Amino acid sequence: MHPTNDAYDIVVVGAGTSGSISARFAAQFGLKVCLIDACEQHQIGNKICGDAIDPSILDYLSISKGDEILTLNSALRLYSPDEQNYLSLDVPMCFVDRLRFGQKLLKEAIEAGNVQFMDNTRAIDLVYDENSVSGVRVKRKHEEKKILNAKIIIDASGIHSPLRRNIKSIYISKEVPKWDLAVCYRENIRYIKEKTPLPAHSTLVVDPGQRTPGGYLWRFPKSDNIVNIGLGTFLHHKGLVKTYFQKYAHKCFIKNDDIEILSSAGCVVPLRRPLPSCADNGIMLVGDAGCQVNPANGAGIDKGMKAGYYAAVVAKDAIDAGDCSLRKLWEYNYRIMTDFGAAHASADVMRLFFQHGSSDDLNFVIMKKILDGNDIADLMYHGLLNLNFIKMVKKFVKGITRPRLLLKLNSLSRSMKKINAHYKNYPKSVELFEKWKQKENIMFKKIYSKFINYQNIPMD
Predict the structure, then answer these.
(1) What residues form DSSP beta bridges with 72?
(2) What DSSP string describes 409-456?
(3) What is the reported pTM?
């Protein structure tokens, strides 16, 4: 291997939505950037997901709305496991053509100036100068391994990040517990001759007791004749996820055979709160690499993009100050946790509650509207469940035949509020992190013991 003299302010590993945003803004801030990705350039953006984003991120990051934005849709229905009842949720949501959207963000990053883009380039491991990351060892197709030196590495390489797994850090978790991962399978389907208009609303079906343990079924409309349908479940069902999809998702959503499957694939996604620290000396993690995905619904595009922007802002300040240590990069952690991290942490409590609950209880909750559409929307997108005294009295009347379920919901509400407050109180400096993390560990151990049947979780 021949080391290179290539030196940058920032090397961004992964040119997906999070990485491209980091590269674009870092370049616009005047930094010298190298953006790498293991895929060929024309395939960047071709990722497996539900393709939904919060449209507010487009204005926040000054992204123009082109034809890659397919539909704007705030109508979402959450169906009971038996599909006899549903709740209507009014949530901000739009759908994108994932490949075209990814290509647009990549193009904007490259055109920001001062960005060298390298496709077909795989990150192998990190390079250190004493106890600080100082570069990344890479292998480009048909070329020898080499080192890209940088003041800061931004890791946007996804949940299977080889950099995170091999990092020398007491702050960044190397592995994500398997019970915090889900396996998904989805298909984009075109109806060829549909006689009646397809439903315009999006659909979620949660059935923890049978069809979707650990996840849900989804149907997202992308046009008047194209839909994205999929199924997510616990990771230990990965060998069966396609079978489950064909057995349950098709039966639930496909009512005739006159269709064309445009694309199909499976993937693993993180379903948990963000990693306690997404930074260390000379490195920051963004997107799936840092588990910055909403645990309640698996949505991660827009929050990963926001994290990418935060990483670029903090990197600019650190490089200008001549200090790329964790002490200086800690601001990135603080921004993440006090912005969407707190909502994701409390949504993680909700995720654990419903993942390990019963389908019968969920049928009852939706049928009796123990929780209404506004309650579920607050749970999924804000990590909140506000059950004041008056609300509790009303819910008690509706659910008087299941007092234990009401007590569990009240306990869920209290637990979510405590976790949310703890994350909002995330330490402003690294010196206070260990104390904060110890308390977070204790809080989640109590939540696990309260809501989870450990016998149902494969620990290896």
Answers:
(1) 94
(2) HHHHHHHHHHHHHHHHT--SSGGGHHHHHHHHHHHHHHHHHHH--GGG
(3) 0.93
- Whichever domain contains 262, its CATH number is 3.30.9.10
Both tokens of 70, joined, read 């397919």
- What is the span of the domain harbouring residue 201? 53-96+177-271
Regarding whether 391 and 248 lie in a shared domain, the answer is no
Residues 284 and 203 in one domain: no
190 and 204 housed in the same domain: yes
In a domain, 334, yes or no: no
Locate tokens 């949940």: which residue? 159
Structure tokens at 122: 């795989």
pLDDT confidence of residue 357: 85
List pLDDT tens digits, range 181-190: 999 999 999 9
Which two three-digit tokens encode residue 421?
């407050």
Burial of 107 (0-12, 13-18, 19+ CB in 10 A): middle
Q: Are residues 62 and 90 in the same domain?
A: yes
Q: Is 169 exposed, middle or buried (0-12, 13-18, 19+ CB in 10 A)?
A: middle
Report residue 265 as tokens: 């694939």
CB atoms within 10 A of CB 245: 22
Task: Report whether pLDDT(456) > 70.
Answer: no
Measured between alpha carbons, how far apart are the two ends of the chain, in Å?
Answer: 36
**Among 150, 178, 180, residue whose Cα is nearest residue 163:** 150
Asked if pLDDT for residue 315 goes beyond 80, the answer is yes
216 and 77 belong to one structural domain? yes
To which H or E segment does residue 331 belong? Answer: helix 326-336
Do the domain assignments include residue 331?
A: no
**Domain-embedded: residue 337:** no
* pLDDT of res. 331: 98
User: Which of 123-127, 215-219, 401-405, 441-445 is predicted with the least confidence, judged by mean pLDDT?
Assistant: 401-405
pLDDT digits (tens, 9 = 90+) for 266-279: 999 999 999 999 99
163 falls within a domain: yes
Q: Which amino acid is at 230?
A: G
pLDDT score at 132: 97
Of the candidates 41, 371, 80, which has an alpha carbon nearest to the alpha carbon of residue 203? 80
